[in-house]
Amino acid sequence: MRIKVTLDGKSSVLKLDDSSTGEDLLMHIKQLNPEWDEIKNARFGYPPKNIKMDDPAVLSQTIKKTGISNGDNLMLTSIKSSAVTSTPDDHGKNVVRIHKVPEDNSCLFHSLSYCLNKNLDRSQQLRKNVATRVMEDPVTYSTAILGGKTPKQYAEWIQRTDTWGGGVELSILCNKLQMAVYVIDASSSKLSLTRFDNEMEKSVEYCILIYTGVHYDPVEFQKFDQKRPTTCFPVKDTQLLDFMISESKKLADALRIAGGTFDTGKAAIVCNICGTKMNGEREASQHAEVTGHVDMQQVRD
Description:
Organism: Henningerozyma blattae (strain ATCC 34711 / CBS 6284 / DSM 70876 / NBRC 10599 / NRRL Y-10934 / UCD 77-7) (Yeast)
CATH topology of the largest domain: Cathepsin B, Chain A
Order of helices and strands: EEHEEHEHEEHHHHEEEEEHEEHE
Number of strands: 15
GO cellular component, one term: nucleus
Domain OTU: 96-222
Distance between the termini: 15 Å
Catalytic activity: Thiol-dependent hydrolysis of ester, thioester, amide, peptide and isopeptide bonds formed by the C-terminal Gly of ubiquitin (a 76-residue protein attached to proteins as an intracellular targeting signal)
Subcellular location: Cytoplasm
Number of helices: 9
Strand content: 15-25%
C-alpha cells in the first residue's frame, strides 16, 4: 500500500502493508521528518474523512479499517501547524486568527453560531431556520434550486447533522440574521459575499469565513485590550473591513501553502460501487443523487 502524506506543504510517499496499524503509520510519518511531531489529525478520501491520530482506537486498528486505502493522500495537521492560524497587526498586539470548529459536517452552521454567540449552541437551530424558510417559500426554493429535492425533502435533509451547508443556506441565513457573510476560498483566494436582501446597505454587520474546499472556519479579531475576540463587524467601518479582508486572505494563503485545502472543483473522483469516474464535487453529487452511491474516493496522481 502506497500512501502520500502531506504536512505544511511538504509531501512524502510511504509504503505500508495492509496489516499496518495506525501506530505503525504514525511511527513511519515521524521517521520521515523529525519535525513532524505531535500529529493531531489526518484527512483523506472523498467525501473527505477526518481521523484523530492521537485516538487509541485509531492507533490500535489496521489503517485499512480506518478507511485509508492505496493511493490516498493524507493531509496531516499537527499541534504546531494548527496553532499557526493568526497574524498580528503592525503593533504586534492585535491578532486576526482562524477559530477552528469541529469537522463534523456542520462546520458552516458551527462557524455562524460561533460568530453570533462565541459558542456552537445555535448550530442546530440555524439548520431549522433554513428548513423553515425552504418550506415557507417553495416557489423561490424549487426542486431545481434544491438539487432535485422537494422543499419537504430538503427541509428534512438539511436538519440532519451529517449534511453540509452551502450557498442556499448562506443566502437564507443572511436574510434571517440580517447580516452579510464574506467567504474566502483558500484554494483560489476568491472572495465571495452574501448579503441581507442582496444589499450591503441593509446589512448591519458582517462576518468572515475561510473555506478550504471541504470545511468552513470563522475568522476572529482579538484586540489586546479586550477579553473576548470580535467575530461580527460593523459594515459602516470600511477601514476595518479592508484590514480584516486583507489579513484573512493572508491566513487563507498560509493554509493553501501548508496544503490545507481541497480543490473539490477539479478533483478526480471514482465511485467505489460501480467504478464511474467523475471530475469535481458537482459530478459526484449528481452521481450520488441518481444512483444512491455514496462510497467514493478521490483519485490521486
